[in-house]
Write a structure and sequence with these properties.
Strand order of the largest sheet: 4-3-5
Shape: extended
Structural class: mainly alpha
Helix content: 55-70%
Strand content: under 5%
Oligomer: single chain
Number of strands: 12
Distance between the termini: 75 Å
Largest sheet: 3 strands, mixed
Length: 1503
Amino acid sequence: MNFINEPLFWKIFHNKYLVHLIFKHIHCTEWIEYDNPQQIHPGNRKKFKDIHSLDWMIKKKLYNLIKCKLESNDYIQVSKSSIITFFSALSKSKIELTTTSTSTTTTTTTTTTTTTTTTNNNTILKEILILFLKKKRVEFEIIDLILEATKCNCIDALEILGNEPYSFMVYPTTLEYALTYCDQQTIQLLLNFIANNNNNNNGNNNNNNNDNGNNKNNNNIIKNMEIQRIKSNSINLALKSSTIQLKEKQLISLFSIFHFKNKNNSLKIEDQPLKRFKSEDHNNSNSNNNNNNNNNNNNNNNNNNNNNNNNNNNNNNSNNDSNNNNIEKEVIQIDKTIIDYSMFLLLKDIELKNKLIDLNVISRENVKLPDLSINSTIDEFLLILKIYNNYCITNDKDKIIFNNHINNNNNNNNNNNNNNNNNNNNNNNNNNNNNNNNQPIKKLQKLFIKTIIQSLESPNQTNPKYKQIIDFYLEYSLKYKKTIDKLHHHNNNEKRSDFIIFFRILQLKTGILNGEHPIVLRDNMKWNPILFEILKKKNDNDIIIIKEKSILDWISENSNTWIIQSFLKKNMISFRFESVQLLSYFLDLCESNLEIIGENLRIIRNTQYNYIFSNSITNFNIDNLEYLNSLGSIFNNDKETLKQSITTATTTTTTTTTTASETSNAVTAVETTGKTIAKVAVTVSETTSNTTSETTITKRVAETITTVGEETTKKAAETTTITAAVAGITTTTTTTTTETRKIEEETLNSNSSILKLIKYFNHIGFKNFSQDLFKLFHNEIIKQITYPSKVYSSIKLNFENMESETIKKMLIESVFSEDLPILELIINSSIFDKKVKTSSISHNSNSKVISFDQKEFDLFYDSPKYIFSKNGVIYHSKSNPVALHSIIIKLINRSKSIPFESNMAMVLIIEFIFKKLIQSKNVTREQIIEINSLSENSISIFHGLYHSFYYLQIRDSKFIKFILSIPKMTQLLFNSERYYNCSKEYEFDPFGYDIKDYFEADIFTFDFIFGKKNDGGGGSSCSDYINSFDTIINMLISQLFYNYIKTIKYPYNLNEFHELMNSTLEYLLLIKRKDLFFNQFKVIQTYIDNVQGKTLLGLNFPLKTYLYQLPANALLPTSSLRDESIRKLPSIPPIEQPYINIRKAGANEEEEEEEEEEEEEEEEKEKEEKGEDQFIKPTILINSFDFSQKVITLCCKTMNTNEIQRLIEFNFYQSAFHSTIFNESIIENNFEISKFILENYEIIITSLNTISSTPQLLDFCDSYLESKFFLENYFERVKEPFRFQTMNYNQSKQLFKVKFLEFLESHFSMLKNQDNYQKLINPSVPFHSKELILKETYDRLFLQFELNETDIPIKYNELLSLSHSRDQTKILSKLFNQSEYQQCFKKIFQEHQEQQEQLQQKSIQELKNNYINSKDNIFINAFVLGIIHLCNMIISYYPNQFKITSYSITRAIKNNNIHILKYFYNNHSNKINNIKNDPILLNHLKISLSIHQFYKFDLDWIN
């Protein structure tokens, strides 16, 4: 097959025309479709040979290209910012490598590919760094590499740079930065580098006994002193971090590296049991160390349990600390370090806070008791005790001291923790362990409460400390169901102890410690644990679930007691009943005994019905639902959640007392926030794991329900799931076949239960369902069926008994919120079925029809139609196009079988969703075309600007790029408006631009944009469309550009034309359509021809330029462009003279026009008579087009030499147009164009390095390549750089000659002093007097020209009135054209030229010396910028013509370019002066470095 096609290939390959078309298609086609039009630009693709920027290659991840260029020693442009980009990429690859290696995925192939790519990136970047250091160290070491790698946290780079064979120096400022912002590993690396560097220096100094060795030793001493000062201040440096989390992270790192001591530490911390409590278990060696409090391993374990947000960091710290235990830490004496007490309290790490306390660096101002929580761990509470003992008391007597008995308990605690980890599945052991775990901390809490309360001299509720400890005591009492007898009035009635505790807690809740108990209890009244559950309520929204009749019987028996009447009755509204039977039993009791509930019976009844209703739904209890339906109640969920009541029936409260445990299944207290019906995730043990979320538990329980009414199976499944959650059991990603099959069966069973529930509600027509209730029913029940799926799509709901308005609201809300599952359910419901009529009687007399009224129609029509933002960015919705496409197809098919009355509503819905679809980001052409083909015969979709706009985006985002590139497109949006709404009428100024006024949506229809030649057949090739890209873009330009220009009056339309045309040309170059770019030239030329001789100076269009440095006159005699057999060059266009618009007094426009025509005729006759022999010709102008700077830049980026010549020929008679193209090609480093212009046009090179002398170009241009181009190819033209300024001056003088008559006429005609003017026009005045006047005026005008003041040659108060100036100009113009005046001008110019040449000949050597010693010659410019390779190239071409100066040294240091000083200090070239051999320069260098912030620490290289 290949053999057969080979001849065809070679035929095409040798056909230049076809090859040209093929490569044109390759270069012009965007092979990647960009969603964002702003991403379309020529920079998306570059040739490898044209890529030099390291920054660009790193950002594009072209790592292999960088490596290839380094290995082949190709030039790479390295800037300081690109090195930072490189280190950031290397650091990121390290993080990705670490993350990939620690994460697990289910797909082996994907994991392997990702891991391999990440590993390769990290490896190749390290190889690139080593290659840079080996092959291009001079170009790469232009910045403090250690500092930048530290800032980027690039460990890989630091390990390469800091170790042998490179061993870069670590400046003190780098260590200071690391101690403030970097992690432990980075800091440790830098400290190791510093230590190694010191060891090497000490070894070298021992071998050097001369002065040089002493100087080095002194430098090391100074540097080490600074480093030691920074270490002593390291805690303060860590506190500079922006957030408390970063401060804490830094402090942890510092304490893991250093052993801090406070030399001003006057705090004496006793070796009390408080310290031994944590140190006796594992690390006895640290028990007597006052500065190393608590065992590291225990603390780190507690950190992992309590600091969930910093698990990874704490684990790393734990590992590092365990390693550091075997390494002696450096002891650091700190000084002047104070941490604010309030900030100290915000720290989370327990070990860190202990160490800070031991270090005595906490401020004692504004001290308060830390926040207290009854759920604190043993370590957290020990820390609170330590803070209290050291900061919250003024007398040592008030310290809290406890005995060794607690220490023994702590040992038990540790053993129990180990048992917990090994026996997670044993619930009984867990409960026992929990009880044992509570014992030590319970005793500590009790001791703490008792000590503080007893220490208060005058307990007062207004005292914050008193209130805080009372609140903590309340938490203690509620958790343990105990109070501290010593703090209350003594009471020996042990039989009534539960009631005594109850009353004490009740008083604590009111903030009272001791009060009277006036309530007398009945002797036969028994205790019931529900009282404690009510006490635990934190707010009125908390609910209590009643599960047994015994509680209700107890309430009924004691209904007339104070406890029931004054305490329990007001809390009954929080009761919820597990079953209908319990609720009925309770209501019967209430009706027989009104004292139980009183007037709240009605409220409680409705509340209980709501709860049971929602609970029955979530538990699929149809029996309960049928019973509630029989009551005829209406249930209002108040936007509460249904899901959370699934597990409440099986949750129990773990208690610590025997009485409560006997009735634990009878009542459950549930804390809620906000409005809820029944809240899950109950008050299980305090050690409940956080690994399994409430949603996961709920979903799992729901999936395990097999059949309605199987309570045993349901409870077993729920209990198993909750137990697994409490134990912290997590499942792995690998699932066996048996488990998978089991899950599938459970899912089928769950779907079966849901469908049965739906069948029941269909039977009652969804009676009593509100909009919110149905939404919850869907989200928490129906949604358990996978959407989209066949099962879900087959669901058909019957809304017979739901209000029509409710259905409409649900329908409209689901459309606007794009809740597609609910929308599909409503559309598939019976309400949209056609009603079958039998014997003129409807099949269902109660059937509803959904139709929209005018208000609802307006809601759809008036919805915002945003298409772009004020920043010129297309507006995309966040919708899922696949889901929207699917629902539209279903809606279209459904519309064929709906009632006629609902047809308009359906059309509105389809139109609205279709608008969302075409606005979504990833919609495809195929999706739009399919919907259009289906809707053509059934539904007519409204079409407007909105649709055309997004059709164009879907067809090709380049169309939208043009629309959004129109300069005034977004100017009409006010500050408060972010997006353009095409359905809104905007008010703006007459020159404003509103796309609606010029864009005809009737032209840009669906068929115009997407119409196919093959009647909509398959394929999406551009050739399949009826209208090509060119046809559509030309129509857009015509609509949005030319239609707009037609509405603007002359001459304002000319400026608008200039702006919009440049915008259009820029756009065509951005999309690389140069053919369309050149097609616009015809339009531009037509406009120029139409306004020839009618426009004034000062307009942007057309551009009027002088006949000065024209490309046509600059063609070299040797240029092949002069060969007219190859091409015909453009002829000179019509010319004009400068026209001053000065109207005579009393003259009208018609008279002026007639006069102007007569004057033009006279001037033409004079020109014919005089010919072309004048020395100073009258000033004439050429009309051309002024291309914007952006267009010129894009031309030099995208065009080849033939296209550039075509561009120059269009403005062949525009002043210096070829020079403009040449200069821009140099800046863009397109030297192919530069070379073409130099070889065909006369160009004066006025600079060897334009870029380095222009600061704003340095960041994105390459000065080295520019200089290399000139020196290697055109050295003869630049071999005398000191002449650049003179050449530039001579070039500008030519313009003075061109405009001389204009300057002269303007000068005389505008002066109030008319003496010289009168002498010039007076024939009786001798001509030599006139020559003197002209010579004096020439000198004055030339001086003003040099100073760029020719536009304002005289002061305003010297100006003649404008009414006379025009007449005088005409007289002077005729006068100066006379031959004797022409001879006079020639003489004046020649004399001036001779004077200038003589001055230049005499001062060539002076010019050369001045240039060499100047501060901005080509070498100094490169030197102060630190470009070593450019400096080397310059001195190689100009040996001994430049020298390093004190100025250049100062500027290089100021710019942080010490690398170039080191290079030339050690450079032994004989082509430039040597710093070592120049005492003045050497001394200046030493002084400058010694006073620098961080270079003063690195003086070894200069000593």
